[in-house]
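Dear support,

Our group has been running a series of protein-ligand predictions, and this particular one with adenosine-5'-diphosphate is the one our PI (initials K.S.) wants archived with full inputs and outputs. We had some confusion internally about which version of the output was final, so please treat the block below as the authoritative record. The input we submitted was:
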Amino acid sequence: MHIAMVSAECAPIAKAGGLGDFVQGLARELARCGERVEVILPAYDGLRLASSDQPRPLGIAFQVPFRGVPIDCQILGLSLDGYECRLIAPRSAQRFFERGRLYGEPDDAERFAFFSRAVADYVSRSESRPDVLHCNDWQTGLAPVLLAERREALGRIPVCYSLHNVGYQGWVEADLLTAVGLDPARLLTPERLADPGDPRRANLMKGGIAAADVVNTVSPRYAWEIQNTEQGMGLQAWFQRHDYKFGGILNGIDETVWNPLTDPLIPVDFGPETLPRKALDRQALRARLGLEEASDRPIIAVVSRLDRQKGVDLIAHGLQYGLASGAQIALLGSAIEPAIAERFAQLKSRLETSPHARLELGYDESLAHLIYAGADLILIPSLYEPCGLTQLIAMRYGTVPIARRVGGLADTIQDANYSSAPFESRNGYLFDEPTTEALEGAMDRAIALWRDHPDYFSRLRLNGMRGDYSWRRPAREYLDLYAYARQAQCARASASSRR
Ligand code: ADP
Ligand code: GLC
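Confirmed final output from the archive:
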């Protein structure tokens, strides 16, 4: 099968969070299964490229109309480990992808609406046509809509649409539809793109859900939450209405990138059979962050985008509570929102003089690896979490998660004390309410086990390390979903030819 995955992110070259890991991990596993995989991305100016990886022009050029102006685009090719990337490079006055970062620009909606139109044009060329198009999140929600609006001689391309974060739906003004050549009078209806909260505005994710052949989110629990609770952020009824083609598939992690036995970004390798060696990475982490050597203190870490979704109040509280409870704390966090960035900058300067606390603000891939390897506990107090990869990565590195029981965190973590699962599958600590008391309760239990029962704590670490978080099973589930999308498309084509 020729699978084209479209996304705003793909690790390692363009990653802000887990969406990048998702695309890389799934693309690699599908390619390993023998499928032909192509990842389509914007040609961002800040791609993190190895010197040996240079995008090359593929001799494919076309014009993409946007706001009535034809914009010259070319396709660049890049071979990454196991799969191919196609980079869409426009030459436009707006310099859409030359901003030094992936997101957070005032015209993000314009940038990704343009990208979606360019993708729809690119994949509709008969030479580039995939067997299935896999779109991701609001940024690419318009691509299924654009394809559904076309009358293609070869029939429509089957589309799978994955939702990684329903907190961001792409709410835009109606004229953005006109900008990409769509007709707002036809599409801005309750049946299509009109936002349920403000029907004068278009909701790109809502439109993508209606137009796609199959839709999924990244854990079964989040699939339930967005249909049945306020986590659906206004789209609950819409999810229920489309539940005939909707489901949840738990993410994997790429075990070649995230493997403490082979990770080149950590100083000392270790695995379940050599767990004591993790202590050397803990030492290296302390040295890297300037934390005092303290064998009586566990290291409690946070590695996160600092976004409201992640429970920033609880993160700030948990760090201070950990410190007051005699632990060391380490945070690596990246914030886009200025108020959140400022708040953590203040916390960082307040804790600067403590030998037991270090906050690093920004994005740092290699420090993230060292933290997973060196820490004892990781805090993930998310308000909502579609899947969450940090808990899976942390567990792989023998670092025990303390997390809120939501979304994929609830699907992947079995509480050390309260789970009904057998002891061998218990791997972390969960709390329910998004309150400081509930968080403190879980942290108390974790710190007490670390301090008073180190053997039991090691067993928890090992349970986490031995879990199967690979992409093998999820990749098979995506292949089934693609097959289902193709059947749905054939059925639709034959129904419309009978009419
Ligand atoms: P989300 O996608 O919502 O950010 P996930 O848990 O799915 O959350 O994935 C987060 C990914 O981003 C992980 O690979 C994590 O290591 C990485 N990450 C998050 N923040 C940072 C940061 N500041 N520096 C480096 N890596 C980060
Ligand atoms: C999103 C979600 C996160 C998920 C990731 C990959 O960024 O916030 O929970 O793991 O996408 O699917």
